[in-house]
Amino acid sequence: MKILAIESSCDETAAAIVEDGKKVLSNVVASQAEFHAKFGGVVPEVASRMHAECISQVVKAALTEADCSLSDIEAIAVTYAPGLIGALLVGVSFAKGLAFSAGKPLVPVHHIAGHIAAVYLSSDLTPPFLAVVVSGGHTSLVDVRDYTDFRVLGRTTDDAAGEAFDKAARVMGFPYPGGVYVDKAAKIGNPTSFRLPKPQTTGLNFSFSGLKTAVVNTVHTASQRGETINTNDLAASFQKTVCEILTEKTLQAVSELSYDKIAVCGGVSANSGIRDAMTKICEENGLKLFLPPLCYCGDNAAMIGAQGFHEYKSGTFADDYLNAFATREL
After folding, report:
1. 198: helix, coil or strand?
2. Which of 2, 136, 170, 321 is most buried per CB count within 10 Å?
3. CA 7, 146, 79 angle in degrees (round to 5)?
4. Where, residue-wise, is CATH 3.30.420.40 in the chain?
5. What is the maximum span of the chain, computed from C-alpha positions, in angstroms?
6. Are 325 and 26 in contact (CB under 8 A)?
7. Sign of CA dihedral 104, 106, 111, 115
8. CA–CA dist 100, 146 (Å, integer)
9. C-alpha gyration radius of the chain
């Protein structure tokens, strides 16, 4: 079963052809990151316009790369929530039109479910398991009871981890997107140089706003005093604190669920410090860790195709009235 998948929730226009939820025949991504870098972040209106300009070519490229035509496609899957509403609407509208004209079923896919499904593309992971979703807009702990059955155990109450990385990176003087630069700096910095707070939350929820603000205040205070900040040390201290917050909550969730499998996914799962920290706690606690390859960590359509396969199998279809939603629970 071949599924054409479309993803446009933020600043990547992506299309992929995925066979049987596992085999990626093509995975085309048109990134806008370089364009938005001059603004220090994604400009939603600009992102929407750029999606509209290239989505047709991206889908065509995915079909060509997979050596497929629309007649070979069983269904069309599309990200419908959550994300930037204008960006989502471009993908949803295109997918609806294409599905209607080609007479194909339309399968709606939740973006977070897609990130979780990215792990299926490169492993033999099967539910149930705990998913740690860490991205620019989301930080969640999810009980994956089945391929289409999710229970959110905890989520961020303010900034997501990826958002905190980018905002902290900006004040440290790194270009957008800043997460990768913080990761590089952290590798050569001293992670014990700065004492940064770990905001307290109830249950399994997260909070990164206070940590981000602490970094901002540290840099601004040093500037006002005419002092020089060792950026590598600050980056290392910040990343170490994020890792501690994530691993502590993850172990708490594992204890409550009694699962022995953990999947860490989302754009920030590409961070080497987080990967190392998660690997360490899994080795120490006899847990099996599953990580997607770096190419499937960020937003892409292959993960939407993987989840789309399972949604199709469970009978989840949309009609011509499918809408996009900026926020929507998993």
Report:
1. coil
2. 136
3. 10
4. 2-117+296-313, 124-294
5. 67
6. no
7. negative
8. 30
9. 20
pLDDT per residue as tens digits for the range 47-106: 999 999 999 999 999 999 999 999 999 999 999 999 999 999 999 999 999 999 999 999
Residue with tokens 């929407």: 48
What single-letter DSSP state applies at residue 191?
Answer: T
CA distance 171 to 168: 5
Centroid of chain to Cα 325 = 17
Amino acid letter, residue 239: Q
What's the rounded Cα separation, in Å, for the pair 323 and 47? Answer: 18
pLDDT at residue 35 greater than cutoff 90: no
The predicted model scores a pTM of 0.95
The answer, yes or no, to whether residue 33 has pLDDT greater than 90, is no
Count of CB atoms within 10 A of residue 286's CB? 7
Q: What angle do CA 143, 177, 115 make, to 5 degrees?
A: 20
CA angle at 172 for the pair 271 and 139, rounded to the nearest 5°:
40
Instruction: Determine the CATH number of domain 124-294.
Output: 3.30.420.40
pLDDT of residue 39: 83
User: Domain 2-117+296-313 class?
Assistant: alpha beta
CA 60 to chain centre: 24
Structure tokens at 133: 């979703």
- What are the beta bridge partners of residue 206? 156
Burial of 147 (0-12, 13-18, 19+ CB in 10 A): buried
